[in-house]
Amino acid sequence: MAPRKAPPSKFGRKPGLVVVGGTRAKRALGAVWLVGAGPGDPDLLTFRAFNALRGADVVVHDGLVSDEILDLAPSRARRINVAKRKSRHTLPQDDINQLIVALALDGLNVVRLKGGDPFLFGRGGEELLACRAAGVACHVVPGVTAALAASAGAGAPLTHRGAAQAVTFVTGHAAHGDPDLDWTALARPNQTVVVYMGVSTAGLIAERLTAAGRAGSTPALIVENASRADERRVLTTLAGLARAAQDVKGPALLMVGESMSLADVTPVVAEDLSSMSLERSSRS
Question: How do residues 55-68 score in pLDDT, each as one tens digit?
């Protein structure tokens, strides 16, 4: 008896499949997969993200996605770089939305590969809505967001009993003007505030938090290129945050809160860490 063939993978359907219905042949719709690539280390990809990549006909990717992750897609898969950086967009977001929809309508399996998680400051919600409006199936694959990788790598917990009962993710970048944030709420002690895209506004963020009542001695950690081979950590205080951020060149997170004093950094960059809330001896 001839061996049974395995059913085709839901990720790996061949493009351009023709479905005959009635008197007309129609090109089958493709699908869009919004895939979180994580912070950069391929080991932090989920199995679901890996499988989606292996079944891709085309990969529409951010500029910060590492080559190691892009190389997991089949060699036949087309790659389209839609990198968005500050003050320089390869494609505006509306054009990206239209691109992934058009590719799927052409019968292709489209992986929209995004750094971190698609739904955390990744504008994945806009792409999902565009697909829904066009009648294109859209699947979301979560990814490890940079804050989780930065926290784990540095050994600085985002929540910690007695020191951080809450964690808040905010963006330091606004389309027009200063970030519109609830500074009073963010200034409360015993919580961790993680700021994405905040390096260029580090001084403003520190000023606003201090003015709202957060102590200048509150520990602050900057993590540049989290999870990558060139990751760099700078431990400072809220008062020293602006100065510490001046030398940061790559993508980075600002993490402010009492439990950041537990961070493992070499070397430590700070004016004076003696007033940090948690003793380093608590690691032992």
Answer: 999 999 998 899 99
The rounded distance, in Å, linking the Cα atoms of 49 and 36 is 7
How confident is the model over 121-160, as pLDDT tens digits? 999 999 999 999 999 999 999 999 999 999 999 999 999 9
Omega before 267 within 30 of 0, i.e. cis: yes
CA gap 67, 69 in Å, rounded: 5
Task: Look at residues 85, 115, 141 and tell me which one is the last residue of a structural domain.
Answer: 141
The neighbour count for residue 181, using CB atoms within 10 Å, is 19
Spatial neighbors of 182 by CB under 8 A, at least 6 apart, are none
- The number of distinct structural domains making up the chain is 2
Is 90 found in the same domain as 76? yes
Which pairing describes strands 137-141 and 31-36: parallel, antiparallel, or unpaired?
parallel
What is the CB neighbour count within 10 angstroms for residue 214?
22
Q: Is the pLDDT of residue 4 over 70?
A: no
Distance CA 76, CA 81 (A): 16
- For the stretch 57-113, pLDDT in tens is 999 999 889 999 999 999 999 999 998 655 555 689 999 999 999 999 999 999 999
Angle between helices 93-105 and 124-134 (to 10 degrees): 40
Q: What is the pTM of this model?
A: 0.81
Instruction: Give mean pLDDT, residues 38-44.
Output: 94
Tokens of 165: 């009962």
Asked if 137 and 131 touch (Cβ cutoff 8 Å), the reply is yes
Residue range(s) defining the domain that contains residue 110: 26-141
Query: Where in the sequence numbering do the catalytic residues fall?
Result: 62, 84
99: left (phi over 0), alpha (psi -120 to 50) or beta: alpha
